[in-house]
Amino acid sequence: MRHVTAWKHSSTSPSQDPKYSTEQNSEFSEGFPARYWLPAFFFPQAFLITVLQDYGRSQGISTDALTFTHHVISDTTDVKDKEFSIIIQKKLNIVRRAFKGTDPTHVGVHVFGLFIEGARWNHKEKVLEDSLPCEICCDFPEIYFLPTKISTERSNASKQTEPELYTFECPVYQTPERSGILTAAGLSSNFLTSVYLSTKKPPSHWITMQVALLCEENEK
Predict the structure, then answer these.
(1) How do residues 175-210 score in pLDDT, each as one tens digit?
(2) How far apart are CA 207 and CA 169, in angstroms?
(3) What InterPro entries does this protein's entry cite (predicted)?
(4) Most confident range, picked from 3-17, 31-45, 88-102, 133-147
(5) In what order do the strands lie in the sheet with 166-173?
(6) Burial of 213: CB neighbours in 10 Å, binned 0-12, 13-18, 19+
(7) In 30-186, which ranges are continuous DSSP H helix?
(8) What percent of the chain has pLDDT over 90?
(9) Quick one: which of 13, 193, 175, 186 has its CA closest to 111?
(10) Short-list 216, 141, 130, 219, CA closest to 178
């Protein structure tokens, strides 16, 4: 967050640059982004930890007592990057999406730009489901990471939260290889975090299918 603040104050305001038109000014807003393109970070783990630290300081809660609650934003109105044929248009679309609806009082962060391998997201039913034929990897919707105080009750990811619904703890990796250096915590350096997704099938099914969220699309 500190680096974002430094960028905000050091960057030239569009209104001060004659190269920017009034129409272009209306597409961007000042302040922190409302959405973050997670694959753009060199060290995404640090970004997520910073979000927890920032919330913990504001609420007087230790970072060790915090975790994330995840909400998948099934919004089909956003234009996909693949519809843009020019690279610069893709980059502008990312910036517009990041600053769309900026709210300085917003808690948590919205992240986008992830891909899912081995499954797909059903926007209508808001659940995880099997991939389409011949589809290995596809885009995943925006995810809302909401800092939440860890409950004293022990949670069970395989337990049904609603009738006919389970929760799958989906791992997030930086690259499709999923391999990396083993850290002191016993996790791969390629591993970022876990996202809890609703599903009608038990978690064992998705574990067998080796489902994971990726920062890079698997094009093999």
Answers:
(1) 888 877 776 666 678 889 999 999 999 999 999 999
(2) 9
(3) DHC, Dynein_C, Dynein_C_barrel
(4) 133-147
(5) 120-122, 127-129, 191-199, 166-173, 212-214, 115-117, 137-139
(6) buried
(7) 44-59, 87-98
(8) 40
(9) 193
(10) 216
Take residue 206 and report the two structure tokens written for it: 């998705």
Q: How far apart are the first and last CA of the chain?
A: 35
pLDDT higher than threshold 70 for residue 20: no
Cβ atoms of 151 and 111 closer than 8 Å? no
Residue type, 167: T
Q: How would residue 80 be classed by pLDDT, with cut points 50, 70 and 90?
A: very low
The encoded tokens of residue 35 equal: 């959405």
Amino acid at 133: P
CA neighbours within 13 Å on the CB side: how many for 162? Answer: 7
Residue 138: phi and psi, rounded to 5, are -145, 165
CA distance 126 to 129: 9
Measured in degrees and rounded to the nearest 5, phi and psi for residue 54 equal -60, -45
80, 81, 82, 88: CA torsion to nearest 10: 150
Instruction: Give the pLDDT of residue 184.
Output: 67
Q: Alpha helices of the chain — where are they, by DSSP H?
A: 2-10, 22-25, 44-59, 87-98, 203-208
